[in-house]
Amino acid sequence: xxxxxxxxxxxxxxxxxxxxxxxxxxxxxxxxxxxxxxxxxxxxxxxxxxxxxxxxxxxxxxxxxxxxxxxxxxxxxxxxxxxxxxxxxxxxxxxxxxxxxxxxxxxxxxxxxxxxxxxxxxxxxxxxxxxxxxxxxxxxxxxxxxxxxxxxxxxxxxxxxxxxxxxxxxxxxxxxxxxxxxxxxxxxxxxxxxxxxxxxxxxxxxxxxxxxxxxxxxxxxxxxxxxxxxxxxxxxxxxxxxxxxxxxxxxxxxxxxxxxxxxxxxxxxxxxxxxxxxxxxxxxxxxxxxxxxxxxxxxxxxxxxxxxxxxxxxxxxxxxxxxxxxxxxxxxxxxxxxxxxxxxxxxxxxxxxxxxxxxxxxxxxxxxxxxxxxxxxxxxxxxxxxxxxxxxxxxxxxxxxxxxxxxxxxxxxxxxxxxxxxxxxxxxxxxxxxxxxxxxxxxxxxxxxxxxxxxxxxxxxxxxxxxxxxxxxxxxxxxxxxxxxxxxxx
Length: 490
Known about the structure:
This protein has 17 helices and 12 strands.
């Protein structure tokens, strides 16, 4: 039986689906390869060169590293960070101090300082806000000032300027914390102004203005007084200085919150008077921020001395607190305006530095309106006169303990004043205590004499910030009341 087919017949097996796809893809790849070779061979040589070089081209980046303009023995670094809604926290500039920070440490600090800022409303982000972090896992304490500023465009970003210190200096730093916050508070407007007006050179310009601030912080940090030796103070000799002069010097020293500059012609006598005033301090931390005689004035030292040089008003106003000036050669005592007026003058001074003298004068700046920063202290406080009259009645070895005990009594009386004011605040919750309430407090506390009243306020303000303005009055508040009365009279 035949099939009707003759010869050798070969059967090929049908392709499987996967094999079909592989064959098709191979044909497509071969076609595209041929097309690409043809397209490349017909391109201009210059374009081919550009195509070959583009993958290896380097992208330019801005150098964010810089050094602090003044050498410091305790400041690890200063860091400027910015929050980006797409990439998160970004480190824009670092000024290296005692050590370099790893990239992880930089980002961690930026994240901690800027965390939670996205939920803030526009009205909440206009003012400068301070934050403090103790990052024990990183070994740093970080004090930051947060602000809103422009960065290379009209877009406003949330930013932070952070002051970074190793935890090895933690105890000493606590004494410096308020000073660091104040310096950051004044550096932020400078940074914002530079970013807005000259962005391309802002970091270079800021670095040049950073030097005086870092130098001042370094000088305060390394300053300290040795332990008191009683026979090296004016307590050892009653007739060394007139009692009236001592009373005025000690009174003004306590009224200006323990900040005093001693000037004269003899370095040994200046240092002796500094040691004597240090007995009248309310805490040991003030001794660690004081210094014996130097050639220049250092802002925010508690007690210091200068030979044959009277600091200028522009130097004195750099200090956070009012200052007493004691001239032991002429036996003169002067002091700056009281705290509630001094803070306004200081604010106006720094505003004038940003605006310029001409613009500030046209804006009725209070700094240019005042005739001089210092006022003569004519009399001492009765409470101080009593202490000085009694101390010299004791044997020389008992005088130092007596002064220490007397200062503690003044501190206790200041605490009683604080408690009284707190009770009045809880009772009526006022923005400002009225004149009748203040008069009643002064009568009950036996503070009818102005010098005694302001002396206790100087001590109380260090224990309970804000009480000075609450009792002595806020000049800005009184100006506001005068405007209200003026408008209501029409």
